[in-house]
Amino acid sequence: MANLGNSDYAEQTNLLAKALSILSAYKVVVLGDREFCSVDLARWLGEQGRYFCFRQKKSTWMQVEEALCFSMASYKLQTSQIQPTPA
Question: Which of 3, 44, 73, 86 is close enough to 58 for a disulfide, judged by CB 3.0 to 4.6 Å?
Answer without folding.
Answer: 73
